[in-house]
Amino acid sequence: MVINDVDVREDPAWLKKHKTGKGQALEAPVKNAVDKFQLLPAFLKVRGLVKQHIDSFNYFVNCEIKKIIHAKANEKITSDVDPNYYIKYLDIYVGKPSLEQDYMVESITPQQCRLRDITYAAPISVDIEYTRGKEIVSRKSKQGQGGVVIGRMPIMLRSSRCVLTGKTEAQVAKLGECPLDPGGYFVVKGTEKVILIQEQLSKNRIIIDTDSSGCVAASVTSSTHERKSKTNFLVKHERIYVRLNTFTDDVPIIVVFKAMGMESDQEIVQLVGRDPRYAGILTPSLQECSSLGVYTENQALEYLGTKVKVMQKAWMKQTKSKVDEARDILQNVFLAHVPVKEYNFRQKCIYVGVILRRMLEAMMDPSFVDDKDYVGNKRLELAGQLIALLFEDLFKRMNSEIKRLVDSTFAKPNRSTVFDVAKVIRPDMLSQGLEHAISSGNWTVKRFRMERKGVTQVVSRLSFIAALGHMTRISSQFEKTRKVSGPRALQPSQWGMLCPCDTPEGEACGLTKNLALMTHVTTDEEEGPLINLCTTLGVEDLSMLTGDEINSTKAYMVIFNGLMLGVHRRPNWFANTLRLLRRCGKIGEFVSIFTNPKQRCVYVASDGGRVCRPLVIADQGISRVKEHHMKELKDGFRTFDDFLREGLVEYLDVNEENNTLIALYESEATSRTTHIEIEPFTILGVCAGLIPFPHHNQSPRNTYQCAMGKQAMGNIAYNQLCRMDTLLYLLVYPQRPLLTTRSIELVKYDKLGAGQNATVAVMSYSGYDIEDAIVMNKSSLDRGFGRCIVMKKASAPIKKYANRTSDRIVAPRLIADKEGCLRVPDRAQILDYDGIGGVGEIIRPGDIYINKESPINTRDTVPNPMAIPDSAYKPTPMTYKGPPGECAIVDKVLLTSNDEQQFMIKVLFRHTRRPEIGDKFSSRHGQKGVCGTIVQQEDFPFSERGICPDLIMNPHGFPSRMTIGKMIELLGGKAGVLSGKFHYGSAFGEPSGHADTVEAISATLVKHGFSYCGKDFLYSGITGNPLQSYIFMGPIYYQKLKHMVLDKMHARASGPRMVLTRQPTEGRSREGGLRLGEMERDCLIAHGSSMLLLERLMISSDQFVVQVCTKCGLLGHHNHKLRMSFCSTCRNGENIATMKLPYACKLLFQELQSMNIVPKLDLAEA
Amino acid sequence: MDGGMAPPPPEPVSYLCGDCGADNSLKPGDVIQCRECGYRILYKKRTRRIVQYEAR
């Protein structure tokens, strides 16, 4: 079924007129395929595009923060000095974003924070109970605000605490915010910061791997609130060992078993499994244990005690025996996440047994080795979890600080006043810790020895899509330099979860990924009720079972979040019942149930960080979503949540997908099908979603476009002109693409486009179009094609100094000119009486826009700092620096003060540019090119209808790039122009009607009197003759990229030099020289052009005349008065020769001399 | 800009409040705050001088 537009489909008149290529009438009712597309907007309406960030932050603010303060180690502070003293945290609140200024608490908006360079943060307050003197006092909340403020928490935009939540578009706009802005980032000190999603290997899961020598190894990264540890199991000389950081050496696994109280070898083997081959592989390990003489628990612990790393803490008295120490390690470090109650190691033994069995299975059959790159073995760490880590660390630090304070006050013999802890809590530490971490991106948690850099990034505001794409970005922990293909490769399991196209090229290729359109990242869920439910559904507790029963072939083990709960005799019934409960909404919608017949396990997962996506449930291949459901959705009687609640749609994570059979389309479903995809194009992310017909392109082209879409100029946000970004690129006349996709509509790219529909003629013209260059029509440029605005911000803080003097801004000083009349200096022409440039004035490079003066003396105390004389100031004006010859316009001047009462002026300069030769353009198919020449419209080819292209593209761009999508875009765009509607080109959209087929487009073209193939009959604009061939011509959406010649061009004849070496400076920004590097030098050497070499390396660089004493070989000096040269060492001027040297060489000699090395010049006649 | 012009007479510069749009005049050392509504962001008014832009 081919339909151009869903809305048109309902129009009977239209339907009558249009027939498909096969002659089949379109009005034939679609019976079996339900158009599920409407689910997508509904899904995005309830979820938003960056819901994963917001959900995770909300979870932290609402739940996790409470868990942190109620954790055993954090809840109570006691004093070592006074045993009666305590402080107890009762509750914690994160309020609404506000700022206290002049003892007034004002609510703040994100836009205010951006403009004022302050942090969008809310007070964190706690209810506490503590002793004051002899009484117990409690500080309780009133109106949602806790008793004591302990700090300020940066608030994620559009999270539950943000002022923007629950507001309508108009209300959001009233607050100066763009309604289309996705949120999900922070505003810290005026800059927008996003905490990137971090990809990690799953915690608390057994990963079977092979080491470098091909041996099987297992590793478990345990992570609990108190502790993080990594436990490795490895095979050495056919024996299995445990490797732990706290042991100096690898310890035999059997010894560990015995130390955990499992003394009988038979029991151990039984626990691993009854297969005789298992016992065979385990024999060497068992043998080693007995040869070590370890038979009992005590012997094993004593053995382990000898392997414990000795802490180098001489001042600490050794209190524990070696045995106790070993037992403590086994309890707390070895597989730390498996609970051990009262030294009952039973559960841990079973856990080790399972690990061993997995290892043995993997030894016998390599297909049992886990894939580390499998997305189901990955967890995504989001903003909420990362901030939680940081918050807990800072909270603990604050508590220890309070404890120190309490101890020191109680230690004093006589205190004058009663100590009140509520008055000494200082909120700076928490606020600054959080603020600093987010603004610098350095996450350091000493407790877990975590030190990560670059966790946060400044939100890229080059274009709307760039900002959106930044929110869905996932950075991986892998090293970028390592040349490994595994983690970089496309994983089949990332289907529908991570975008297959959107990854950068180069070193981070495949390591930085992006979420797909419908992906959701889970947050932690309450475990207790789920465990109870499992037990109720017939999971037999492990403590009641022997190893033999656990490993029996009849039962499956039930593993909940990496912990063995027990076994179940009817695993499929169990899994299906749990799924049923999930579909009823009795348990969380993101709980995943996955049966693994190979490992004979049922995995139930409710932990955070799993990626999952919604799918339509099907019963024996028949979709549960029916036509009437979609109608109700369309009429607004239903939301996406209703679909979830009624069990029509469910979320599946990567593991559970293995238990399903998912049909791409309803028509392809068989009786075994369990789920149906909602829409196939949702496998792509936001950036790849912009590409029309991406399924017709060669895949790297889509990847290139994903990178380039982020550099395209266009509209940034609805509030773009109210923002004061350091650098902002805007398009003057942005358009929405003629050929759209469903993703474009969903992400609202059609409202904030970044490009223009250019009529492109694919032909060769003028020779200035080779190597992807494009020829542009000058009249099109006059009409505004590719015209852009570059906004630059300059900000000037009015500093206050320690001696209470401060900078000041004054009106321009008048100076007398030649005729003696007073006038404003040329540089200060645009200044107003307040000493700040006038808004709307034209400013040229070198002009002053803020006439600032700074006090000369900023250290010593001045009697009256406000009234020091003018002579005590030195002028420190701010001058405009821009491209020479170009002039900008002062667009906006803003005066404000930040939270430290620092006065600040921000000036925004506007520069409008029209395209010039060398500016970079790109279509949406990874086809970038620079403007090669600009030609008068008179010389451009034209058709008999008078259509003249905006740009000409060389056809050589097509054969090797294979971007068929671009050709179809041209066709579709042309048909769209002719028929007056937008055509669609969603990925894989032809079967579901979200992309037009070439046949349908061609039919439209023919109907309007054009060739079916999109070619036009053109006349040469130069000769007026018809062109020899028909030209493929039509509109293509073109993006102007941020790389412009004006920002890059650079040349230098002579210019500034470095002070130290007298060589030319480096870099365009310093008007630097163009370097003749070592490779270029090698060429000249090889060519033998020594004079050129000398000219380049010395004469044009740092030539210097020196006086050399031919006798002693040292450098002398020239006395200009006597016009004589002398050798300073020989104290005469007899043997002096004058020669030229690079100044750097002379500098080297002198530096060597300063280190007692004497370089001497031995001169010979040339 | 025409360079030969006599210096403009000192005229007080007033600023617009970013929230309510009220006129505010500032003296050196003043707190940046709107007198009407207390908003702390002020914008400078457009210049009253004549400027001629080049359209190309």
Automatic annotation (TrEMBL), chain A:
<dbReference type="Pfam" id="PF04566">
    <property type="entry name" value="RNA_pol_Rpb2_4"/>
</dbReference>
<protein>
    <recommendedName>
        <fullName>DNA-directed RNA polymerase subunit beta</fullName>
        <ecNumber>2.7.7.6</ecNumber>
    </recommendedName>
</protein>
<comment type="similarity">
    <text>Belongs to the RNA polymerase beta chain family.</text>
</comment>
<keyword id="KW-0240">DNA-directed RNA polymerase</keyword>
<feature type="domain" description="RNA polymerase beta subunit protrusion">
    <location>
        <begin position="48"/>
        <end position="425"/>
    </location>
</feature>
<dbReference type="GO" id="GO:0000428">
    <property type="term" value="C:DNA-directed RNA polymerase complex"/>
</dbReference>
<dbReference type="Pfam" id="PF04567">
    <property type="entry name" value="RNA_pol_Rpb2_5"/>
</dbReference>
<feature type="domain" description="RNA polymerase Rpb2">
    <location>
        <begin position="202"/>
        <end position="381"/>
    </location>
</feature>
<dbReference type="GO" id="GO:0008270">
    <property type="term" value="F:zinc ion binding"/>
</dbReference>
<dbReference type="InterPro" id="IPR037033">
    <property type="entry name" value="DNA-dir_RNAP_su2_hyb_sf"/>
</dbReference>
<dbReference type="InterPro" id="IPR015712">
    <property type="entry name" value="DNA-dir_RNA_pol_su2"/>
</dbReference>
<dbReference type="InterPro" id="IPR007647">
    <property type="entry name" value="RNA_pol_Rpb2_5"/>
</dbReference>
<dbReference type="InterPro" id="IPR037034">
    <property type="entry name" value="RNA_pol_Rpb2_2_sf"/>
</dbReference>
<dbReference type="GO" id="GO:0005634">
    <property type="term" value="C:nucleus"/>
</dbReference>
<dbReference type="InterPro" id="IPR007121">
    <property type="entry name" value="RNA_pol_bsu_CS"/>
</dbReference>
<feature type="domain" description="RNA polymerase Rpb2">
    <location>
        <begin position="1072"/>
        <end position="1162"/>
    </location>
</feature>
<dbReference type="InterPro" id="IPR014724">
    <property type="entry name" value="RNA_pol_RPB2_OB-fold"/>
</dbReference>
<dbReference type="InterPro" id="IPR007120">
    <property type="entry name" value="DNA-dir_RNAP_su2_dom"/>
</dbReference>
<keyword id="KW-0804">Transcription</keyword>
<comment type="subunit">
    <text>Component of the RNA polymerase III (Pol III) complex consisting of 17 subunits.</text>
</comment>
<keyword id="KW-0862">Zinc</keyword>
<dbReference type="GO" id="GO:0003899">
    <property type="term" value="F:DNA-directed RNA polymerase activity"/>
</dbReference>
Automatic annotation (TrEMBL), chain B:
<dbReference type="GO" id="GO:0003677">
    <property type="term" value="F:DNA binding"/>
</dbReference>
<dbReference type="GO" id="GO:0006351">
    <property type="term" value="P:DNA-templated transcription"/>
</dbReference>
<protein>
    <submittedName>
        <fullName>Uncharacterized protein</fullName>
    </submittedName>
</protein>
<dbReference type="InterPro" id="IPR029040">
    <property type="entry name" value="RPABC4/Spt4"/>
</dbReference>
<keyword id="KW-0539">Nucleus</keyword>
<dbReference type="GO" id="GO:0003899">
    <property type="term" value="F:DNA-directed RNA polymerase activity"/>
</dbReference>
<dbReference type="GO" id="GO:0005665">
    <property type="term" value="C:RNA polymerase II, core complex"/>
</dbReference>
<dbReference type="GO" id="GO:0005666">
    <property type="term" value="C:RNA polymerase III complex"/>
</dbReference>
<dbReference type="GO" id="GO:0005736">
    <property type="term" value="C:RNA polymerase I complex"/>
</dbReference>
<dbReference type="InterPro" id="IPR006591">
    <property type="entry name" value="RNAP_P/RPABC4"/>
</dbReference>
<keyword id="KW-0479">Metal-binding</keyword>
<comment type="similarity">
    <text>Belongs to the archaeal Rpo12/eukaryotic RPC10 RNA polymerase subunit family.</text>
</comment>
<dbReference type="InterPro" id="IPR039747">
    <property type="entry name" value="RPABC4"/>
</dbReference>
<dbReference type="GO" id="GO:0008270">
    <property type="term" value="F:zinc ion binding"/>
</dbReference>
<keyword id="KW-0862">Zinc</keyword>
<dbReference type="Pfam" id="PF03604">
    <property type="entry name" value="Zn_ribbon_RPAB4"/>
</dbReference>
